[in-house]
Design goal:
- Helix content is about 30%, strand content about 20%.
- It is built from 14 helices and 17 strands.
- The chain has helices spanning about 40-45, 95, 115-120, 160-165, 170-180, 195-210, 220-230, 240-250, 270-280, 290-300, 320-325, 335-350, 370-375, 390-395, and strands spanning about 1-10, 10-15, 30-35, 60-70, 80-85, 85, 125, 145, 155, 190-195, 215-220, 235, 255-260, 300-305, 330, 360-365, 385-390.
- The strands form four sheets. Strands 3, 4, 5, 8, 9, 16 and 17 form a seven-stranded mixed beta sheet that branches. A six-stranded parallel beta sheet has the order 12-11-10-13-14-15, with helices on both faces. It has a two-stranded antiparallel sheet with strand order 1-2.
- Helix 5 crosses helix 6 (about 195-210).
- The longest helix has 13 residues, at about 335-350.
- It is globular and about 60 Å long.
- InterPro entries: ADH-like_C (IPR013149), ADH-like_N (IPR013154), ADH_Zn_CS (IPR002328), GroES-like_sf (IPR011032), NAD(P)-bd_dom_sf (IPR036291).
- Belongs to the zinc-containing alcohol dehydrogenase family.
- Keywords: Metal-binding, Oxidoreductase, Zinc.
- This is Glutathione-dependent formaldehyde dehydrogenase.
Length: about 400
């Protein structure tokens, strides 16, 4: 089959690789109908996530048609399903309390040492996201093997087209959990750093949850315009002193809650960020946490900090004193996708949530390398890329 594979920093290719096979009785095989490039895929593309190997198949946002099942899978051939990017067994301590992204069994034992050393406990398995998280092949391919297919995938009704539901795989529940972790109350002022796909869904979710004011922070005009269309007020951080503006927009108190949807590759020319960029390039320190540092300083005393943005290592000059002295609450983590998919599917069906407004480009799988390059380098206009295996044949017909 054809699949998008990683070969090094800024080097991804569509190669012919072996077809996936049923390995476990709970497995299923999907024929991919739609898959997307995620902002966190760019961390792999930029070479800042350890444990990726040449030839690894990328992609953790995907959906497709069930074409083969193991004897213990609950799926049936022909069903259309969206698959959570987190791989979860459904039976361990964490899965039973719906902390699916902390599953104890989905990362194979022989691959747990690296993340256990880094984080104190091994990570759960994720699709297409390095051997830190199990080394599973991802879904930017024609076919994919889905472990624990009786736990994760959600069956999609025929009347909903792919693009309305594809993002249930990651960025929609990630944005929703980012807002939920901010514990939003009806009178809250909420600031969101980053108007990428997760940030935009966090903004939309915060508004649906009843925040009285949501403030979006970015520097790309089109992405800020998308945030404004959702109902947010906006700040261009290259033109405005962010903390000063937030104080003014929150009545001189500071935001009640802040959401960092940027993660480990923050942009901007703040001195601390420039130093972090230099350190990241030479491998000293893995995370550029400028957005998170700003958020901690901008939130009011007693406020809440939510971090859906991805971090992988260490960071310098972290404002630990502000965190403690202001009495802040912090919540973060990979998304417990399976906890949210059913409710969010209902919100898509009844029109509460729109998931299609941020799609800017639809490409054949064979053009995935161009999609990665432009999604990284043309972020103002390339807001979300959906890849369609088989689109090449449709275009040629």
């Amino acid at each position: 089959m054809r699949a998008l594979t990683w070969h090094g920093t800024h080097d991804v290719r569509v190669d012919t690789v072996d077809d996936p096979e049923i390995i476990n009785s709970r497995d299923a095989i999907l024929k991919i109908t739609s898959t997307a490039i995620c902002g966190s895929d760019l961390h792999l593309y930029d070479g800042v996530i350890p444990g990726v190997r040449p030839g690894d198949v990328l992609g953790h946002e995907f959906m497709g048609e069930v074409v083969e099942t193991g004897r213990d899978s609950t799926l049936k051939k022909g069903q259309r399903v969206v698959v959570p990017f987190t791989i979860s067994c459904g039976g361990c301590f964490h899965c039973k309390i719906q902390q699916y992204s902390a599953c104890e069994n989905s990362n194979p034992a022989e691959k747990q040492d690296m993340s256990a050393t880094l984080y104190g406990h091994p990570m759960a398995g994720l699709f297409g996201y390095s051997h830190l998280t199990g080394g599973y092949s991802g879904g930017q391919a024609e076919y994919v093997r889905v472990p624990y297919s009786d736990v994760g995938p959600i069956v999609i009704p025929d009347h909903l087209e792919d693009e309305k539901v594809l993002f249930l795989s990651d960025i929609l529940p990630t944005g929703w959990m980012g807002a939920e972790n901010a514990e939003i109350q009806p009178d809250d002022t909420v600031a969101v750093w980053g108007c990428g796909p997760v940030g935009l869904f966090a903004i939309q979710s915060a508004i649906v949850m009843g925040a009285s004011k949501v403030i979006a922070i970015d520097h790309y005009p089109h992405r800020l315009e998308l945030a404004k269309q959702l109902g947010a007020e906006v700040i261009d951080f290259r033109k405005t002193d962010v903390r000063e503006a937030l104080m003014e927009m929150s009545g001189g108190i500071g935001c009640d809650a802040v959401i960092d949807a940027v993660g480990m590759e923050a942009h901007g020319f703040a001195i601390d960020n420039m130093i972090d960029i230099a350190k990241q390039k030479i491998g000293i320190g893995a995370d550029r946490a400028s957005a998170l540092k700003q958020a901690i300083l901008a939130v009011r005393p007693g406020g809440r900090v939510s971090i859906p943005g991805v971090y992988g290592g260490m960071t310098d000059k972290f404002p630990l004193g502000a965190l403690m002295e202001k009495g802040l609450q912090v919540r973060s983590g990979q998304t417990h996708v399976q906890r949210y998919t059913k409710d969010l599917l209902e919100k898509i069906e009844d029109g509460t949530l729109d998931t299609t407004f941020l799609i800017s480009h639809r490409l054949p799988l064979e053009e995935a390398p161009r999609g990665y390059k432009n999604f990284r380098e043309e972020q103002d206009s390339w807001t979300k890329v959906v890849l369609k295996p088989g689109m090449e044949q449709e275009q040629a017909a």
